Amino acid sequence: MKYGFLTSGGDCAGLNAVMRAIALYLDNNVKGAEFVGIPEGYAGLARGEAVPMRADDFAGLLTVGGTILGTRRTPYKTMTEPEADGTTRFEKLIANYKKLGLDCLFTLGGAGTHRTAAMLCAEGCNVIGLPKTIDNDIFGTDVTFGFYTAVDVAADALQRVRTTSESHGRTMLVEIMGNKAGWLTLYSGIAGGADAILIPEIPFNIDRLCEAVAADRRAGKRCSVIAVAEGAVLDSEAPYRRKDRAFARAERGETTVTAHLAEVIGERTGTETRATVLGYIQRGGSPNAYDRLLCTRLGSYAGRLAKEGRFGVTVAVSRGEITFNALADIAGKYKFVDPDGEAVHAAEGIGICLGR
Ligand code: F6P
Question: Are 68 and 186 found together in one domain?
Answer without folding.
Answer: no
